[in-house]
């Protein structure tokens, strides 16, 4: 039996933008080794594998697993957006109740201005300061110094299904010039259990420019990272760096030629964070 693998770009703002993801809408019967092999053949940072269950009162329940070309990932935001849009194109907009390795995730799809849009509600978020010795190692791997860091946004490790290093810098130029030591950062992230490093510059209180190194997935940089965006939203809320409720706009991928936009909605009384974006099929 041949497994159909769809190719979508999530969080797109223009043709050629967004983060590519593989999508398998029927992963029934696929074992771990097969899913990893498919993810390796696809070659994107993640491929999502959906196993659909029952539909009840307009909500479709499904299990989903995510594989990078290297290993399984507990949760992936951009592949979830891609999967939701691909599913909605075939079955109509609606709600998905997804069971992931990181917990239950609710997704809704709708049409806006003739384009399908998906909103993903993340697993509950939390955040903690980075250990000083670990921060020193991270700065060395990133080829930055403490003087490069934004004093308004303290270095943290934030969680929304996966753990992400969160570091803000003082200038857009520092972010744009990023040239990090892949091997050193890969070793540090493996030791600390981080999935990506969420590196950002604040244009204003609710607008951020972001780069996301992803060595654990064998990827130098992710052009759009939904799970990290959700974790970052939780970080901003927990540290009272934004008023709630609010919508945060994240611009990512511009420095690597794949412009992406992620919309992050943060409320005071919900431990989850909602991340919204578009997705489009990648032409063969």
Automatic annotation (TrEMBL):
InterPro entries: Phenazine_PhzF-like. SUPFAM superfamilies: Diaminopimelate epimerase-like. Keywords: Isomerase. One of its GO terms (molecular function) is isomerase activity. The keyword Cytoplasm does not apply. The keyword Isomerase applies. Belongs to the PhzF family. This is PhzF family phenazine biosynthesis isomerase. It comes from Aeromicrobium senzhongii.
């Amino acid at each position: 039996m041949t497994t159909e693998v769809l190719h979508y770009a999530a969080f797109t703002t223009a043709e050629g933008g967004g983060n590519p993801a593989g999508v398998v809408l029927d992963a029934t019967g696929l074992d771990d080794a097969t899913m990893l092999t498919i993810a390796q053949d696809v070659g994107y940072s993640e491929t999502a594998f959906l196993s659909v269950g029952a539909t009840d009162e307009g909500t479709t329940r499904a299990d989903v697993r995510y594989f990078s070309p290297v290993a399984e990932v507990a949760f992936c935001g951009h592949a979830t957006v891609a999967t939701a849009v691909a599913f909605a194109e075939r079955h109509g907009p609606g709600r998905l109740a997804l069971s992931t390795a990181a917990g239950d995730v609710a997704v809704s799809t709708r049409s806006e201005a003739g384009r399908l849009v998906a909103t993903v509600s993340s697993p509950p978020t939390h955040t903690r300061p980075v250990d000083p010795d670990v921060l020193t190692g991270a700065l060395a791997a990133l080829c930055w110094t403490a003087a490069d860091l934004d004093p308004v946004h303290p270095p943290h490790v934030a969680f929304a299904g996966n753990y992400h290093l969160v570091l803000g810098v003082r200038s857009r130029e520092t972010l744009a010039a990023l040239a990090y030591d892949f091997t050193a950062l890969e070793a540090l992230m493996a030791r600390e259990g981080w999935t990506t490093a969420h590196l950002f510059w604040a244009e204003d209180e609710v607008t951020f420019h972001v780069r996301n190194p992803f060595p654990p997935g064998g990827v130098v940089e992710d052009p759009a990272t939904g799970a990290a965006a959700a974790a970052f939203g939780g970080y901003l809320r927990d540290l009272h760096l934004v008023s709630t409720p609010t919508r945060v706009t994240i611009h990512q991928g511009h420095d690597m030629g794949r412009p992406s936009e992620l919309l992050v909605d943060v409320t005071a009384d919900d431990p989850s964070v909602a991340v919204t974006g578009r997705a489009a099929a990648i032409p063969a």
